[in-house]
Amino acid sequence: MPLLNVILFFVTFLTTTAAGALQAGVNPLSSLTAFTKGLPFSLTLMIILLFHESGHFFASKYHKVAVTPPYFIPAPSLIGTFGAFIKIKAPMPNRQVLFDIGIAGPLAGIIVCLPIVIYGIAHSRIIPSPTPPQGLILGDCLLFKILVKIIWGSLPENADLMLHPAAFAGWLGLFVTALNLMPAGQLDGGHIAFAIFGERGHRLISKLTLICLISLGFMGWYGWFVWAVLLIFLGLHHPEPIDPTLPLGKGRVKLGILALFIFILTFIPVPFKI
């Protein structure tokens, strides 16, 4: 593995651990013991990101498409990272390969994310709701709400669930899955949409996604404006594979429907409130 990838992975592990320690209410620079308080968050988040990118990586290797190892991005932020990505260095040979590489990341990510979320929710604790609300309030996707309901039942009135670090990392994993599955541009969902609907269908769906993001920005979370700008900057266009005529087959179309179902279950219209 190239040295740069190893260094970025190690630095991202350090920044996510520091972020986890800060979330635990300790100064990560005060001592090694304080720093290790961030490990429950950093280890689970890094595993989720690694599985997601490994899905893309191994699918690319299986189809003999040239690809880089994952690049992790450290960041001085609440979670210590801007995520991870791989770079595909060759054009896609056909729609089947495009589909497989696009869907492999979200599927691998959600498979490892689910048990982490379940463990984290089960080890969270119920606390009285502060009045007025304080700090950063997380929105919940349908899947997270369902799992909380199954594990905890109905929460008492005027009570909140204080998330275990693994639950927060899992929440982020679900959110990242939804972001990647947005059917626009060259996101994972954009690859899937292009493979299923072709160039015209992809272009229309990308534009509709952009309109939806701008609308959501006015409705609750301004971060969707940033995502809309990023999509415009990166481009809504998707390059055609070398052979755009090879059909997907019913099996891949069914997997595409599953990806849509996962997107609906993990998407959060208003992910953050202050």
TrEMBL record:
Task: Pinpoint the Peptidase M50 domain residues.
Answer: 41-208
What name goes with this protein?
Peptidase M50 family
Q: Which PANTHER family match?
A: ZINC METALLOPROTEASE EGY1 (PTHR31412), ZINC METALLOPROTEASE EGY1, CHLOROPLASTIC-RELATED (PTHR31412:SF0)
GO annotations of cellular component type: membrane
Membrane-spanning residues: 39-59, 71-89, 101-122, 161-182, 210-235, 255-272
Q: Where can this protein be found?
A: Membrane
Per the UniProt entry, the signal peptide is: none
